[in-house]
Amino acid sequence: MKPYPAQWERHEVLPDGRRVFLRPLKPDDAALYPDFLAQVTPDDLRLRFFAPVKDFGHAFVARLTQLDYARAMAFAAFDEDTRELLGGVRLHADANYETGEYAVLLRSDLKGRGLGWRLMQLIIEYARSEGLRRIEGQVLTENTSMLRMCRELGFAIKREEGSGNILDVMLELG
Predict the structure, then answer these.
(1) What percent of the chain has a predicted confidence (pLDDT) above 90?
(2) Distances in Å between the alpha carbon of 39 and those of 36, 75, 76, 87, 105?
(3) Is the pTM of this model over 0.70?
């Protein structure tokens, strides 16, 4: 396992003036997830996990916060003043370490303020630094905010035959 990558810590100011601290997720951050998830609407959770989520127990949170930095990365965003968890983005590399699958989740009251955009830019920067060739994800067709951001970041968007209301998004990094 790789050690904690402190070189990825960042202090940022969002377009709305909010000061945030971005850093790789740590297992200790699990304690912040109950308050964070309580501020994400059921619909936003469904858009992220593709199904209603009701169980935020230890096992669920552990899957989110315990990472092998050699195969995965997750960045968390914290309010500089309150230290509250505001959102996060994650990337899991495939077995060949060529493609990474991303996912992002923000507090629902912070959507549209530039935080998701900044987290996506950071995970793209990270993926490039690691030599990944592309980033991929799946997005529900109704998740228009995520699809708009993907288009603006240069992701190709396509529907696989038989995929229903799920679109594949892909960004070539090379």
Answers:
(1) 73
(2) 5, 18, 15, 10, 11
(3) yes
